C-alpha cells in the first residue's frame, strides 16, 4: 500500500494554522483560561472546606 504523504503535509501546515486560530481568538482563549483557573481555585477551596468568595460580573481582562 502506497502512503499518500498527507500526514507530512498536515504536520507542516497545522502549526501555522493553529497559530492563526489562536491569534484570531486570543481574547476568547484568555477569558476561557481565566474562567477555568477561577473554577479550579474555587473547587480546591470547596474541597478544603473553605467557602469560596462569590464574585459575579464580567471577567477582568
What is the CA–CA distance across the termini? 53 Å
Residues in helix, %: 55-70%
Q: How many distinct helices?
A: 2
Give the overall form. Answer: elongated
Uncertain segments: none
Please give the largest β-sheet.
none
C-alpha Rg (nearest Å) = 20 Å
Order of helices and strands: HH
Q: Beta-strand percentage?
A: under 5%
Structural class: mainly alpha
Return the average pLDDT rounded to an integer. Answer: 87
- Secondary structure tally: strands: 0
What can you see in these coordinates?
- With 61 residues, the chain is mainly alpha-helical.
- The chain has helices spanning 6-24, 26-47.
Keywords:
2 helices, mainly alpha
Compact summary:
With 61 residues, this protein is an all-alpha fold. The chain is 67% helix and 0% strand.
Topology:
Elements: H1 6-24, H2 26-47
Amino acid at each position: 500500500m502506497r502512503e499518500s504523504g498527507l500526514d507530512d503535509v498536515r504536520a507542516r501546515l497545522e502549526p501555522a494554522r493553529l497559530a492563526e486560530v489562536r491569534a484570531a481568538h486570543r481574547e476568547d482563549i484568555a477569558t476561557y483560561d481565566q474562567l477555568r483557573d477561577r473554577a479550579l481555585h474555587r473547587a480546591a477551596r470547596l474541597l478544603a472546606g473553605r467557602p469560596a468568595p462569590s464574585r459575579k460580573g464580567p471577567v477582568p481582562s
